[in-house]
Amino acid sequence: MYSDYFNLRELPFSIAPNPKYLYMSAQHQEALAHLLFGLQQDGGFVVLTGEVGTGKTTICKRLFEQLPNEVEIAFILNPCLNEIDLIETICQEFKIKIAKDIKLKDLLDKLNNYLLACHSKNKKPILLIDEAQNLSTALLEQLRLLTNLETNEKKLLQIILLGQPELAEKMSRKALRQFNQRITARYHLAELNESESRNYITHRLSVAGCHEALFSKQATKKIFQESEGIPRLINLLCDRALLGCYTQGRFTVTKQMVEKSSEEIKGKRQRKLTNGFFSYVLGISALILLIVFLFKSLPMFYETSSDVTNEKEKPELEILEKTRGFSGHDNLGNAIRDLISVWGVSFEDQETNGCGLSEKIGLRCAKFLIDLDEILKIDRPFIVSLNQEFFTISRANRETFFLFAGDKEYQLSFSEFSGIFDGNIDLIWRMPPNYSGPISLYAKGPAVDWLSIQLALVNEETPPIDTNVIFSEEMSEKVKRFQRLSGLSENGVVGALTWMHLNSYNSQSVPTLSY
């Protein structure tokens, strides 16, 4: 309706997964690289997870545009099937002729013969299953058994699973540990940040033929806030806001237009009333608890301060007393979930260890004894313990450290934080594919293949597509040069710290302390 009015060739904010409109943020580029890398391996699973509307399906469509003609692709968009229906659907998607009421064994034989025929013709069959979080444990196990179809040299079937974060939780179950071992590459797509959201809007308008700023700065900021960086919601808000702008006969979308669009799409007024009531109740409750806590803390303060005689300890004690008013988590596990949320991830499973769940989407927890200068170089959010309570440091610089625990936020100056920091931190970092530990001389495997790609990008070389690369002395020297440039110990061994700096250097999508 409004395309001619704004001189657009077509509607730019359709929610259909059109690869032409795919905005390749740093994390989308990284996700695509993981998928390409996984497909270079012989068989097994490639897993891409992300919240609804983050662009998983569109990335896969872009992936298939880059695949050679010898690739045979089967799509399954609705995996809510039983075991026989699943195999039958796979056969149908590969255009394998099957009879009615065929038994499971006969279906598997038909599929195996087809895969062997593809192998003899140098064709590569790929099965893609969308909404894979809906697959039952029995179906996931059935898919694992399909990857057992092989020759003496290689697996015959590659499977790509797209799903919401619940898929990662499901794969963490003990019953699926064998399935989890078959995953050759995995990636989790988080929401866009504010800058990426702004660029996303500009990109889609440009593809549709518009190079003018149709959205004010306040409008794009509001779109980010209302969409929380989810591309599908950005599309809905932009489309509705442009329609509102058109009906008003104006040419620039305002913040107020976005607010109205959000109310129409999300029923926001009702939500505001509900949230306002509960926020009021929670606020009053928190205030009462804080008053009780402070009264209980007063005797401790006077007793402690009256016993202090060393003048050098006074600044540290004053800071500790200041942080007694901070309310953190009483266990590390809850703080880990806060830290995971900074990465744009949340898990419904509140019982399983958060670090274990995170490894299912390529993230790993680590503990370090480290100084503040090195922390600022690493530039990753981290967890600290203050007064035996745990807080996540989400942002920091040479002036201020921002701490939070749950919905509570606090600030400490750099000098205040350094005065009580003991050097112990917990953080999360993004692993390479199939990472099991530090890489040293003569190692090989998917993590070494991935390392060769990352080092090529550092040295502005064309990334290799070779597999089974050996971590040679030449590669070790490249690692040492990179470690020297990054201010790390030049040992040529690729451990967690080196990977973190490689991730930062290659602009991979990772949350940072700097702001």
Overview of this protein structure:
The protein has 515 residues and is α/β, with parallel strands linked by helices. It folds into four domains: 26-189, P-loop containing nucleotide triphosphate hydrolases (Rossmann fold), CATH 3.40.50.300; 194-266, Orthogonal Bundle (Helicase, Ruva Protein, domain 3); 315-430, Cysteine proteinases (Cathepsin B, Chain A, Alpha-Beta Complex), CATH 3.90.70; 446-505, Orthogonal Bundle (Muramoyl-pentapeptide Carboxypeptidase, domain 1), CATH 1.10.101. Helix content is 48%, strand content 14%. It contains 20 helices and eleven strands. It has helices at residues 26-40, 56-65, 83-93, 104-120, 137-146, 166-171, 177-181, 194-207, 217-227, 231-247, 255-266, 268-307, 314-323, 332-342, 354-359, 372-378, 414-420, 446-458, 473-485, 496-505, and strands at residues 44-50, 71-76, 124-129, 158-163, 183-189, 363-369, 382-386, 389-396, 400-405, 408-413, 424-430. Strands 6-11-7-8-9-10 form a six-stranded antiparallel sheet, with helices on both faces. The chain has a five-stranded parallel sheet with strand order 2-3-4-1-5, sandwiched between helices. A hairpin with a 2-residue loop joins strand 7 and strand 8 (389-396). The two termini are 40 Å apart.
